[in-house]
Design brief:
The protein is mostly helical and 486 residues long. The protein has a single domain (3-484), classed as MFS general substrate transporter like domains (Growth Hormone, Chain: A, Up-down Bundle), CATH 1.20.1250. The protein has 19 helices and eight strands. The strands form three sheets. Strands 1-8-7 form a three-stranded antiparallel β-sheet. It has a two-stranded antiparallel ribbon with strand order 2-3. Strands 5-6 form a two-stranded antiparallel ribbon. Strand 2 (179-181) and strand 3 (184-185) form a beta hairpin. Helix 12 runs antiparallel to helix 17.
């Protein structure tokens, strides 16, 4: 018999202390690396294309190559985190990203540049899994949404920092393709700048306490009790550890087999996580960040204006992410997603209409004239507003909290891998979509936003106020409610 579960009941009283905020910020720094790497290539892509004489297809693959590494890194991060701990995976990720930064900066050809970007992608993919899982496992349920949203805030801060760094380097050198210091072009310095946040992330990670859920799973309940009491603010530590032990089960060997279920071979909740991740990328958000400079130059903005436009978009994303942090534990995850899907569908649809009225130029590009340029700019930023206030942070929060303790890291890894694969597909196909027409490209993303609205309404649960130990394997989702099947 199916039993509905009330997932919106008030969370027990809990205190948000500074320690749990600081360790959540430390874990979320992995998101900063993700954002920085995602956007640093934005200012370098044209210079790379010219330096190595690349075609549009090869350029797209070079930009997107890191995402393949991200998918692989995310896929294996769950099992590695279960075996070696969340903190060790964070430290390893920071080292790999540091090496990637310098390798990309000193690349002598497109093939080794792709190799170094894939290496950095492995690090980012692992960090993208560990951060939401770790934050969910240390945060009090009452504040889990806000703390989990720090991952997305770190991502957008990384995007902004990368754009600002690109603009400074290109401005000093007179262009990304020009020599800056020590005989190296500005675009190379853009990549090497990523070494700084990699070092900060590694130093922060080694000072973080291990996840109490991992410690209990490894037979260290005393250490877990210390973390729960000192950082999480748990009032009844013994009871919480008992709940963790019960939901972890006796078998501490986790694998992909744990995700098997009756819905096309996987548990229903795992499919929900996979599709949630995929839709976050299929709406085309990263096109705005990966190709924004090139895009706005193509429709009539000068190089300096294109950088300014990208920076304004990035700042907007930061502001609305802060708004999401304020709202997510008050109005819930599901409502924010529904609002976001609706707003994105309208915004992307209007961008498609704007580019349908673009004027072809003699060079084969398009130009927006009159009010259509303003329309495109306004709705591009409205799209960022709706995404940044909803789907950006909420997906990471849900992925960190919606799975049961026993399969959390593994299920999150699979869902995150799906996200990176979708990210790669969107990034790789945008140049091809743009060749067909920007109206087609944004029309496609708008249709994905509409489908995401339907998906959220029927399949995405509300997890606000629920303890992680309340999440179970034998669960399906019907119109936003968890329903247990036995």
């Amino acid at each position: 018999m199916a039993v509905p579960v009330d997932s919106t009941s008030p969370a027990p009283d809990a205190k948000l202390n500074r320690k749990v905020i600081f360790i959540s910020i430390g874990a979320a720094l992995g998101g900063f690396l993700f954002g920085f790497d995602s956007s640093v290539v934005n200012g370098a892509v044209d210079a790379i294309e010219e330096e190595f004489a690349l075609s549009a297809a090869v350029t797209g693959f070079t930009v997107a190559s890191a995402l393949l590494g991200c998918a692989v890194g995310a896929w294996f991060a769950g099992s590695l985190a279960n075996k070696y701990g969340r903190i060790r995976v964070m430290v390893i990720s920071s080292i790999m990203f540091f090496l990637s930064a310098f390798g990309s900066g000193f690349a002598f050809g497109v093939y080794d540049l792709i190799f170094w970007r894939v290496l950095g992608g492995l690090a980012i993919g692992a960090a993208s899994v560990i951060a939401p899982a770790y934050i969910a496992e240390v945060a009090p349920s009452k504040f889990r949404g806000r703390l989990g949203s720090l991952q997305q805030l770190a991502i957008v801060l990384g995007i902004f920092t990368a754009l600002l760094t690109d603009q400074v380097f290109a401005g000093v050198a007179g262009g990304a393709e020009n020599t800056l210091w020590f005989g190296l072009e500005a675009w190379r310095w853009m990549f090497m700048a990523a070494a700084v946040p990699a070092i900060i992330y590694g130093l922060a990670a080694i000072r973080l306490p291990e996840s109490p859920r991992y410690l209990v799973g490894r037979g260290r309940p005393e250490a877990a009790a210390t973390v729960l009491q000192d950082f999480t603010g748990e009032t009844d530590v013994s009871a919480r550890i008992g709940e963790i032990q019960r939901t972890l089960g006796d078998d501490d060997k986790r694998s992909l087999k744990d995700l098997r279920g009756k819905t096309f071979g996987l548990k229903s909740i795992v499919w929900t996580g996979i599709l949630l991740s995929a839709f976050q990328q299929l709406v085309g958000i990263n096109v705005i960040f990966y190709y924004s400079t090139t895009l706005w130059q193509a429709v009539g903005f000068g190089a300096s204006q294109a950088f300014l436009t990208s920076t304004i978009t990035s700042v907007t994303n930061i502001v609305v992410t802060i708004v999401a942090i304020m709202l997510i534990d008050k109005i819930g995850r599901r409502l924010l997603l529904l609002i976001g899907s609706t707003g994105m569908a309208v915004s992307l649809g209007m961008m498609a209409v704007a580019f349908a009225n673009a004027t072809p130029t003699s060079s084969g590009d398009v130009e927006l004239t009159g009010g259509w340029a303003t329309t495109a700019l306004i709705f591009a930023n409205l799209f960022v507003v709706f995404f940044g206030a909803t789907w950006g942070p909420v997906v990471w929060v849900l992925l960190g909290e919606m799975f049961p303790n026993r399969i959390r890291a593994t299920a999150l890894a699979v869902a995150a891998a799906a996200q990176w694969i979708a990210n790669f597909a969107i990034t790789m196909t945008f140049p091809l979509f743009a060749d067909i027409g920007l109206t087609f490209a944004y029309g496609f993303y708008a249709s994905m936003a509409v489908i995401s609205l339907i998906f959220v309404y029927f399949r995405v649960p509300e997890t606000r106020g629920m303890e992680l130990e309340d999440m179970r394997d034998d669960v399906i989702v019907k119109r936003g409610k968890f329903v247990y099947t036995d």
